[in-house]
Structures are given as C-alpha cells and as structure tokens.
Amino acid sequence: MREISFSEATLEAMAEEMERDERVFVMGEDIARQGGIFGQFKGLPQKFGTDRVRDTPISETAIVGAGVGAALAGMRPVVDMHFADFITVCMDEVVNQMAKIRYMFGGQCTVPVVLRAPDGIIRSAAAQHSQTLESWFLHVPGLKVVIPSNPADAKGLLKSAIRSDDPVLYFEHKALFPTKGPVPEGEHLVPIGKANIVRPGSDVTIVSYSMMLHRTVEAAAQLAERGIEAEIIDLRTISPIDFETINASLAKTHRLLIVHEAVKTGGVGAEIAARVAEENLDLLDAPIVRLGAPYVPIPFSPNLEKFVKITADDVTLAASKLCE
Amino acid sequence: MKHDAEFLRHLYRRMTSIRLFEEKIGELFLGGELPGFVHLYIGEEAIAVGVCANLTDQDYITSTHRGHGHCIAKGAQVRPMMAEIFGKATGYCKGKGGSMHIADFSVGMLGANGVVGGGYNLAVGAALAAQMRKTGQVAVCFFGDGASNRGTFHEGINMAAAWKLPVIFVNENNQWASTTPYRTTTAIEDIADRAKAYGIPGVVCDGNDVFSVIETAKAAVERARAGDGPTLIEAKTYRIKGHFVGDPEMYRTKAEVQKHLDENDPLKNFANKVIAAKLLKQADLDAIRDEVAREIEQAVGEARQAPYPDESELFADLYVEGVK
User: Fold this and answer.
1) pTM for this model (two decimals)
2) What's the ipTM?
3) Which of A278, B297, B299, B317 lies 20 to 30 angstroms, CA to CA, from B156?
C-alpha cells in the first residue's frame, strides 16, 4: 500500500468530500493563502476557490458561530481552529449552540459542522499552544469527538465526520502531521464510535489514542520481550467511547491500563476507569491504572516539558507492574 | 401612507397577536401554570413586525431570550408556541426548548437564544450560506442593547462586513440590560454609530412606530439582497415589562413606565395613524383583536390539555445517528 503523511491524508479527505458534495466548505485562519500551519489545506483553494476555502478574520467566536449558522441553513462547514487551545475562545458556540441546538429545538434541524482542532504537545509550544482538551467535550451531550492516530484513520475519520449530520470535533495531533503511513487508495471511511484493536494480546489491555497510541505500541514490543502480551486498543473516537470493544478485551486480559497525553485528572481515562469499575469490576484481576500528564500547564523549558510527556518506558513500567 | 388596507390589517394582526400572547403568558406565569421563566416583548412589537414585513419564509432570523415576538412576526403559529412554553409534547420543540429556545425552521425562524449575544454569528453563518448559494435570501439578527456589548457583536459584524454578507443587524434598544440602564454601561448615545467602525451603514429608527421600522428595514434588506452587505439598524424603544415576569423592578419607577406607555405604545401609535388617515376603522381593529384573542384562548386551552413529552423522548433528537 502507498504511504502518505497524516497531513496529506487529511488533504485527500477534504478534497474528496468537497468534490463529492458542493455544500462542504472550509474556513479558518491562514488556511487559504498559507495552506494551514501544518500544510493540511495546501492546494485546496487552487482546486476549489477561495469562496469554499476561506481565510477568516482572527475571530474564533465568529468563525465557529458562522459555521453553526451555515449548517442550520443547509451547508456542511468544516472549521479550522488553528490550535485546539483556541476552542476556549469560542466555548459558547461549541457548548451552548452547536451541541444543543438540535436537541433543544426538538430535532427540527441538523448541525453538520466539523471542527478541526490541532492539539497535543509539540516542541516547547508552551501552555497555550500544547494542550489536549478532548475530555472537555466528552462531558457535553450532543457532540461527537474523534481523534485519529495514523494517516489512514485521519483520512477515514475526517471523511466520516464531514458526512455526519451531527457536530463532530476532530482532534489531530500537531506532531503527527508529518508522519507517514499506509493509506488505501480511493474511498476510505472509518466509522465514528468504533475503536480499533491495533495489537492483539492476552495479558493486559492498553487503551490509548492519538500520539500516545504510538508510545503504547513501542511499549508492547518491550513488554513482549518480558513475556507480557499487551492488547492495544486505539480508541479513535472519544465520544461515544466504544465500551463494547474495551469490555470484550478485558474479558480476555482482566487488566486495564489507559494512556493519554492529556492531564490525568478528569481525563478520558477517568471516564473509562469509572465506567469499567461501575459496570464490569468482576472482569478485573487488578486495579485500573491510568497514565496521563501531571496536573500542570505545559511548561516552556524543554527540560521541564519532558516531565509532562509519557514515554514508552513509562507505559512499559506501568504495564509490567500491573501484570506482576 | 402608501400601504393598502390588507397589509395594514396584517401588521395590526401580528402586533396584536404578540401583545395578547405576551399578556396571556404573563398571566399564566403569575398563576403558576408555566415552568421556567419568561421574558416578555410587550412594547417592542413594532420592531419585529416591521422588520419581518420585508422578509419571506425563505429568509432567516435569529432571536434572543425575549423571542416570542420575533417568532410571531416571522410567521410562527401561536398554538405550538404556547404548547412549548407549557413544556408539552405538542410544542414546537416537543417541550425540550421552552420559552427561550423556540424555533420554527419552516418559516426561517432559526431559534431564540438563551445566551445574550448568541445569535449574531448564527445569522452571519446563515447569510454566508445564502451568499455562497446565491439564493438571494437574507438573514436578520435581532439583539438588545445589552447584547451590543458582547464580543460576538464585534466579531460577527466585522466578518459580515468584510465578506459583504446579506445580513441585517437589528438592535432593539429598549434601554435596559436586565436591571441595568443603557446609559450606565455604554458611553455612546446611539449604538448605530458603531457601524462606522465596520464600514457599513448604521441607521436609527423609531422602534415604536412600525412604519418607521418598515422603511428602514426595507432599505437594509434591499441593500443586502443586492449584494452590498450588512446594515446596522438601531430601533429605539422601551421595555414596558420587567426583565422577566415576576421581576420586582426596583430599578425604575412606575411613573417612568407609564409615561412611555402613554406616549409610545406602538399599538396605539398604529391605531391613531391608520384611523386618522382613514385607512382602517376602529371596528376593523377591534375585529382583529377579538379574532386574535380567541386564537390565543384556544391555544391556551389546547396547551393545557396536551400531554407532556414521554420519557422515551428524553434521548430523541440528541444525535441524528443514534448513540446512547
């Protein structure tokens, strides 16, 4: 299979969906002239014009609000947030408007908006350009949240998000944009709400997603050398979480480790751990373990930044202890 | 006055419908029959009716937490409105929205909004959709003087002006932001002056005179349809009732309210003008009023009898593509 970058995969998804449906358009800061800060929109304006690939003012509330309004009027907007951190600027539009409109209007309308939100730690981007905020949106009924870890899923999930009649937050890790991987030619869709078993195993279930998925895969190789076979689940969708896949895996391994880049407190891992403890405690032979960032903003200094990042060694250590 | 009698009857019917609907809502709320809370539009009828007289069902409006008047002016029916405010299954939103979230997409009413300043960008987005599709539709955003101090005002108008979107921003300056008088929060005399900052026309009209509103909005709608971009209209009026029903109104005197009612009641203004010009007779107006009163009584009777939404409705309409 051909190998393309994560960034190119999202470009393909955009181009195919814009070709397929003329209601699809994209707007955001620096996406047309610059092609997006991570090259994720390069070439789109040449193909589709600056009417459908529009540079906006630096006005997050207007961009997202207008995306919602355009969706209510029958379009299918994709809105680029530049950095996921800036969603905080337009929380009303996301939480009070986009998420609730269909429900509170009794199903009179659909809100087919996609927010593309580049998240995650990149080198010393510091506290306001490095966050992973996906767990916030798990807490808001009415949204769907996806978060691919590789180019194929990046393409397939973005296409599914654009075709979804529900509002979807699409988190894409900034450090993953240049990474390459196999992506099928032509139509490739990944369903929203379906996790992926990346590596089968019998001793411990490791649930992860996005960048940390790669750390767990590295760790699995180390664990295998120690005779521990980890089953790795790539969540791919944060809302709704695929508990069916998680529970089926736990029925086999009886041990659960959850790994994410976001702050551990109140994170996606907390929700998974709580649900498993509430509903399937009898599947477990050991306490649930979570790995996430410590409860601090992301520091600037490379020396400090490294302490908030989770490494493959951290995962290996945690999984080994869990399997003792 | 160049309007024909049929049109004048239409204007009076809509304004009277708002007035009697709101009086009835106030009565029912104080009688303990309505859940939640309600904000009445009494005294501001000429604005919604005057603006919407220039619109078709294909045009869009966004509204405020004081939205009943906008609904009626845009052509929504009082029966499902009343049922919605009762929280009944037969309401516009199946009882999931209530007073502050009534919408009727079939007439382009994109919803009331519980967030002050929440409607600007939804209207901007609807106008963007209209512009991209070249449909000739316009979008109108109604908002209060309090909402003009939200950041969304600046972002929405600026983006709409930069893109020459077919949107009309209609400020209903009723002098009160909840309990706070306009003059204590805003240094300028006219909100319309802010239009200069965005390079669009800003015009003031008499919000208590439906003919003044119609003429002003007509020019703005024509300008928008012609592709010349947005207009900011400030309709000067006064909030006759408290912020919400039950508001003890400690912040103003009864005499101040009575003075405005005596001098500026838009319904009395209208009656005086059309009777003096011999275009309609008092008997015509009385007949319309009786007809509207019967309709509202019927709506109340039906809403009282209507069932509450069933528990099975709880999760309906949250997502299009079903998720638990």
Assistant:
1) 0.97
2) 0.96
3) B317
